[in-house]
Amino acid sequence: MDMGLKGRKAIVCASSRGLGKGCAAALADEGVDLVINGRNPDATNATADELRARGVEVTVVLGDVSDPATQDALLAACPEPDILVNNNAGPKLRDFRELDREAILAGVTQNMVTPIELIQKVLDGMAERKFGRIVNITSMSVYSPIAGLDLSSGARAGLTSFLASISRSAIDRNVTINAILPGKFDTDRIRAGLEFGAKKSGSSIEAERERQEHAIPAGRFGTPEEFGRTCAFLCSAHAGYITGQNIKLDGGLFASAF
What we know:
Helix content is about 45%, strand content about 15%. The protein is an alpha/beta fold and about 260 residues long.
């Protein structure tokens, strides 16, 4: 299927690795020119080279996307984005008793405030140009709690509620805002979770991985590549009637009829 995206421009935050990289790669395959972002120069530049090999223009903006200066640099590199993929690292796994006010505010800034700030900066321009796709990478923990990720879950749930009406405010001008809620994907984040779970249960990382995969109806962790293809569809010309939705991508792990 032709996604109707060739020649479009996208900002993909936190895209040097993992799910963000998967989204950037899928968009590159559709002919989208990219501004990618990461904090590690070596990893981010290596990803940029991989993406350029797919035949698109790629600009690198280094820095923490929660830093206003980094956000300004992203918009300077791509003043009129057609697509914004909001992604950011979440707070580390820890017992909620270990969180002080500074840590809580930092987590909310990472996973709620930052995407809102970027949406504020791009939404009206997208509406004027009559095309815009905003995809927020949140988490299945918005629906189903994960021990140790309470701060991440709360901040992402706040983002979801905050955007509920905003996502319906510009669809008449062909601008959509949706979220993808990843379950367990084979990324650095899940590997940190495996270490946390193994330590908590007194088992090995391999045993913890097997236990977690066995609990997923699909019998495996997801891949960044398949996550990216879902993102590309939500960004496509064919998804203009989808907005305000939270797409669960979890191999059937969350058991619910609705």
